[in-house]
Request: fold
Amino acid sequence: MEITQRELITAIHGMLFGGFFLMAIFGAIVMLLEGRRGTSEWPLSRWQMVYLIAMVAIGWAAVLSGTYLIYPWYRAVAPAGADLALYPKFLLTAHPSTAGWHNFGMEWKEHIAWIAPMTMTMVAWVMLRHRTVWNADRAIRAAVLGFAATAFLAAAIAGGWGAMINKAAPVRGGNTIRLMRSAP
Reply:
């Protein structure tokens, strides 16, 4: 069983950073809903503070690794006569039946993905630094929950498109890493 370096980094980007970020957003929404129903002075525990900071860090790791590692490999220009399997964008756009995966899916995904960590950074900032506003104003609580829901939707859309695009035209290349030897 083998995997290339780029496939491994893509898996870390999507399944580790992206997947955990999506689950962490959902957990943060549950935490916010629980705090909204509590007392007027809902204190955050130390683990909840660490959770919010870690969630934001994982979200930024997903977006930055996608933008600055995976995306340049995805968009690499294919030389004339090259095997398009190593150039995902050109593999997708070479056929009218798969061109939409790039023309709509990737073009939209690369923009919406940034919304999730931006909005969750704002949510975490309000929860960590402006607790009195959260505790005092029902409209602020509703707005923060709305931003968290928006982040969840943006992350889910970006992750869904990313998974489907990577299935249709995976990012490959780099050194081969052997995970297991084949049976004789």
Summary: The helical segments are 5-37, 46-75, 88-93, 99-112, 115-129, 131-136, 138-168. The longest strand covers residues 2-4.
